[in-house]
Design a protein that fits this description.
Helix content: 10-25%
Order of helices and strands: HHEEEEEEE
Number of helices: 2
Strand order of the largest sheet: 2-3-6-7
Number of strands: 7
Structural class: alpha+beta
Largest sheet: 4 strands, antiparallel
Radius of gyration: 13 Å
Distance between the termini: 16 Å
Shape: globular
Oligomer: single chain
């Protein structure tokens, strides 16, 4: 299935590591809950972040494996999803993927 294939590709990137070991956040109280390939088979990657401390923050997100880095703002307890294309262009998504 598409979901199985996406999980397999994400596991290849992760190579047994946790999301938090691949995607680095510069502030505490923000967790990486998802790092995977987009389910549409485009090759884009999806990073989902979750604010856990109840504080608005401006954070830096770095992922060397996909040569991407960006700054973003996250609201208290927000779940934010970002999609990164092959050129490293980042855009926020407002639906779960």
């Amino acid at each position: 299935s598409v979901a199985d294939e996406a999980a397999k590709k994400a596991a290849e990137i992760a190579d047994g590591r946790e999301c938090a070991d691949i995607v680095k956040i510069n502030k505490s109280g923000v967790e990486v809950s998802v790092f995977k390939f987009a389910e549409d088979k485009s090759g884009d990657k999806v990073i989902r972040l979750r604010e856990t401390a109840g504080e608005e923050k401006t954070i830096s997100v770095m992922c060397d494996e996909i040569n991407a880095g960006f700054r973003c703002e996250i609201d208290p307890y927000e779940i934010a999803t970002y999609r990164i294309d092959a050129e490293g262009f980042v855009r926020e998504k407002f639906i779960f993927e």
